Amino acid sequence: METPEPEAPDLDAPDLEQPVRVPWWRRPIWMTPQSWTSLAASIGFLCAVMVLALVPAPYVVWAPGGTVDTLGHDASGAPLVEVSGAETHPVSGQLDLTTVSVTRVDSGLGFAPAFVAWLRRGFDTLDRDLYYPPGTTAESSRQERAAMMSQSQLSARVAAARAAGLPVSPHPMIAGVVVGGPSDPALQPGDVVLSVAGQPVEDADTVLVALAAALTEGDLGDGDELDWQVRRDGEDLTVTTSVRAGDTVEDRLGVQLIDGFDTPLTVRYGIDEEIGGPSAGLVFSLAIYDVVTPGELLAGRHVAGTGTIDTDGRVGAIGGIQSKVVAAERAGATIFLVPADNCEDLAGLRTDLDLIRIATLDEAIDALTALHDDNHLHDGNHQEVPRC
Question: What is the arithmetic mean of pLDDT over 25-41?
């Protein structure tokens, strides 16, 4: 009986006794309820991180900025605060104005950076609409800060002259000039107005009333020219401007007038134009005073400070005081002049700086003079220097 030959094995048939390898992308996904919960939580966390990092927050951040030694010199060797018109004297030490770095009006800020800034020493967050009112642009912000800086420099010159015992006389003054306006560039901020259209003037109101009458009566109209006699950097000049359409006299002239003062001092500031605002007034006035008075006010010390100044020498509070203290620390200062109304804003800030409380320019001069002596002696009498 014949037996059939066994069939040859099919070498291509799968070995049913061996596991079949399935590519990972073809395998079925089996997830427990706990796995789905973990996945959803992870996705939610990633979305939250993206929102915190990318979605703009309604805040701006104040951070410690740089410092500038107002008794120092620029790259060409010229003093950063150059004074003429009175006898000058040698100075020593370093007198720093302090700055803060602020989120630009055209830059966004995520929630995460805002939160981190809120936690950091010397940083602060502020409501964006309070710092930059709606409608503020980068250019309008720059112009506003430049105008405040210009006004602080003018006030510092007058306050320093008064503190040094130099003559000061009131006169109307150009506080600002509209760029591209009918008075640009003939008039410049800081010009002392001596006469308008040949008529001597005593104050800003005199100028505005006289010009308003001339415009109303038709003696002066759109496109007409107007002669001004001004004193600029100690030199008397006659300049010509024009008149344009506008709602107010200042609009039609393209200038802002204030009651200013004339002094024998001429001050040239070599400060970076990117630095703006009014908060360097106190430091500017101290720098000018130190240059025009005998003796060395700082006596080689490294002093920093901040605060607005008016023409009577009153010191005003500023924003970002903690940021400025940290900036002064980083620059190596040992003494920091604090506006009296800012002292409470430094509660809780740990610093090795000697924080001196200042309400007037005279107080700042007295404090620095007193600190010259290790025992805080001034004019032979024991004087306790006020501190925050």
Answer: 62
Confidence of residue 364 (pLDDT cuts 50, 70, 90): very high
C-alpha atoms less than 13 angstroms from C-alpha of 142 in its C-beta half-sphere: 8
143 vs 256: CA distance, rounded Å = 13
64-102+142-167+264-388: CATH topology: Ribosomal Protein S5; domain 2 (3.30.230)
The pTM score is 0.75
Q: List helix spans (H) across the chain.
A: 33-54, 111-119, 128-131, 138-163, 204-216, 249-253, 281-292, 321-331, 361-371
Residues paired with 242 in a beta bridge: 225
Q: Round to whole Å and give the CA distance between 224 and 214.
A: 11
What radius of gyration, in Å, describes the C-alpha atoms of the chain?
34
pLDDT in tens, 101-150: 888 888 777 776 777 777 778 888 888 888 888 888 888 888 888 889 98
Highest mean pLDDT among 163-172, 175-184, 200-209, 220-229: 163-172
CB 234 within 8 A of CB 84: yes
User: Which amino acid, 34?
Assistant: Q
Confirm whether 183 is a catalytic residue: no
Residue 8 has pLDDT above 60, yes or no: no
From its phi and psi, is residue 367 left (phi > 0), alpha (psi between -120 and 50) or beta?
alpha
Q: Would you call 279 a catalytic residue per the annotation?
A: yes
User: Which residues sit opposite 192 in a β-bridge?
Assistant: 173, 231
The boundaries of every CATH 3.30.230 domain in the chain are 64-102+142-167+264-388
Structure tokens at 44: 């939610």
Task: Identify the architecture of domain 169-262 in CATH.
Answer: Roll (2.30)
Q: How far apart are the first and last CA of the chain?
A: 121
Q: Which of 152, 155, 279, 323 is catalytic?
A: 279
**Cβ(232)–Cβ(188) under 8 Å?**
yes
pLDDT at 49: 63
Provide CATH 2.30.42.10 ranges for the chain. Answer: 169-262
